[in-house]
Specification:
The protein is of the alpha/beta class. It starts with a strand and ends with a helix. The strands form four sheets. It has a six-stranded parallel β-sheet with strand order 8-7-6-9-10-11. The radius of gyration is 20 Å and the shape is globular.
Length: 364
């Protein structure tokens, strides 16, 4: 049977204690000291992924480092840990392995990992982009916004995902702002978009200024800390948060009932799939990066499809076509671990209508 493996890691020490309950009373530093020494482990056997063309199985393999460890420990050590997880995937018999969360961010975005494994590696970023853009546009429509006339902002536009999101959105959006820390790289991306689409985009390194008038936001930074706070967003704004850890503060959910925050890249998997592991999603749904690995296995495309930081629009469009072929589709929206209902969206729209006039007055 065709198959795959997908490498995951604990976002924080809470995730570690879900697996190892005896650690719950230990301080964070002690927990991280233990996980630093743990070997990779098989978390679950995935069954029932089935399209009209093929059926596959897979495995979740955990690299036991938290996000903070991924970002602060020596890069060489972290990459070695991820390679060890990849080696475990090989032993399980996987024919392709996907990199989840920060395992796809560290170092050269999977290139070194691929060179040290005997099976292909993909980061899943191509399908993540496809679903993030589709989700943002669909959510905007439900909020009564046409992407062609909306003020669209991409935060993290110099990263591989953000850059291609911007290039795809530039085909339809009339008002596009790119946000990133490296102004030179932003200028280069803006010039490329101008050449290819004729759209003159705005660029800035100031997140809060960019958000003041934003109608639709895709945020996809590699920041360990949140960068979008409750007071930053315009009433009625739609934010697709693709980043893990999140770019949007939980305060936004608690204090702002007039904006719509959705998680990027959540898809429905075809077949009677059982992940045999609870990672906080509704049954038969997963992140798009996981789904890309499954799509490639279903298609028998055992290749390093998305690797490094040179993502292209063509890759994104191709994986979107393959996803549709095999029956993957955008799942219902989620926000801070909870499904977003139609009733919730209507409440947000009504609250935004009430608050927008006051906001515009303060913005003048």
């Amino acid at each position: 049977m065709d198959n795959f493996a997908f490498i995951i890691h604990p976002i924080d020490t809470y995730d570690v204690t879900r697996k190892f309950k005896f650690m719950r009373r230990l301080p964070e530093k002690v927990i991280e000291g233990i996980t630093k020494r743990l070997p990779p482990v098989k978390i679950s056997h995935i069954t029932g992924v089935k399209s009209p063309y093929n059926e596959i199985e897979g495995w979740f393999v955990a690299c036991p480092l938290t996000t903070r460890q991924m970002m602060t420990l020596p890069e060489e050590f972290v990459i070695r840990k991820i390679i060890q997880a990849g080696k475990l995937a090989e032993k399980l018999g996987a024919k392709i392995v996907g990199l989840g969360a920060f395992t796809s961010v560290v170092g050269d975005a999977g290139i070194t990992i691929s060179k040290n494994l005997n099976i292909p590696v993909t980061t899943g970023n191509s399908y993540t982009v496809a679903t993030a853009v589709e989700g943002a546009i669909k959510a905007a429509e439900l909020m009564g916004k046409d992407i062609k006339n909306a003020d669209v902002v991409v935060i993290g536009a110099t990263g591989s995902i953000g850059k291609v999101c911007a290039e795809i959105l530039a085909k339809d959006a009339r008002f596009l702002t790119l946000v990133g820390r490296n102004m030179e790289r932003l200028e280069s991306i803006a010039e490329k978009i101008l050449r290819e689409t004729g759209l003159s985009v705005r660029i800035t390194s100031n997140v809060k200024n960019a958000l003041r008038k934003a109608d639709v936001v895709i945020t996809v930074t590699s920041s360990v800390d949140t960068i979008i706070d409750a007071e930053d967003l315009k009433p009625g704004a739609v934010v697709c948060d693709v980043a893990r850890p999140r770019d949007v503060s939980k305060d936004v959910a608690e204090k702002r009932d007039d904006v719509l925050i959705i998680e990027g890249g959540v898809v429905e998997v075809p077949g009677d799939v059982n992940f045999n592991f609870n990672f906080g999603f509704e049954p038969k749904t997963c992140y798009a990066c996981m789904a890309e690995t499954m799509i490639l296995a279903l298609e028998r495309r055992y290749e390093c499809y998305t690797l490094g930081r040179d993502l292209t629009v063509e890759q994104v469009e191709e994986i979107a076509r393959l996803a549709k072929k095999h029956g993957f589709k955008l799942a219902g929206f989620r926000s801070f671990e909870r499904p977003v209902t139609a009733e919730h969206i209507e409440r947000v729209k009504e609250n935004a209508r009430k608050n927008l006039e006051k906001w515009n007055g303060n913005a003048i």
